[in-house]
Amino acid sequence: MRWREDGNLEFLGRADRQIKIRGLRIEPGEIEHALTTSPGVAQAVVTVDRPGTPEARLIAYAVAEAGRSLDADALRTGLMDRLPQHMVPARLMTLDALPLTPNGKVDHARLPAPQEGSARVHVAPRDATERDLAGIWHGLLDVPLESIGAHDGFFDLGGNSLQATRLISRIRDTFHITLEPRLLFAHPVLKDLAARIGEELTAAAAEETDLEAEIAGLSEEELDRLLSEEA
User: Fold this and answer.
1) Carrier domain spans which residues (predicted)?
2) Which whole number is the average pLDDT over 138-155?
């Protein structure tokens, strides 16, 4: 289908755009439908970056409705509730308009390439949590450790959904906490994800302190009874 000058969609017939990434078959049209039915989105197209390689990843482009603005991170987080994890684009870019061919079809060759890294001034990781997290990203993404800054995003540096799953696992092994995968999509920037890890660590420490205080307040008989119940 294509957008006509009067703003209506013209259906041109089905073209099989099914793709495969790491053995999983994906229909880009399903992702595009999820995007165009999201609030504020007028048009969307999904492509594959680095096709045919182990680093292949989905890239989505969205155009806002007239008078609206889009938050790419919020859109991608919303897709987590509607699509399987492997169908959530690694990058979502907002455009003023989709480039079209003379025939009115999306000109995929003119879609902007995803920019790796961050255009911000580099800020080195500032505390132990950010440094540990940067070390994990370095191991997963094969990005020089010294180039990973506090304001860099996991997906901006080339991360994909498979690496996101591995990241959650390594965070669990390193920090001994379990994060929901959606938190990574909601907080892909290193400093923000590190802050969430810090919150989880603080909550876990407080829970442990409360438990220790509760145990300290038990009598010897109560402790013996609890231990016998556990045996």
Assistant:
1) 124-201
2) 88
Cα gap 146→210, rounded to integer Å: 39
Mean of the per-residue pLDDT values of the chain: 83
Coil vs helix vs strand at 42 = strand
Torsion sign, CA atoms 65, 66, 68, 69: positive
Claim: this prediction has a pTM higher than 0.85? no
What are 5-20's pLDDT values in tens digits? 555 544 444 445 788 8
Q: Which of 76, 67, 15, 19 is nearest to 44 (CA)?
A: 76
Domain 128-230 has CATH 1.10.1200.10: yes
Pairing type for strands 57-64 and 91-95 reads parallel
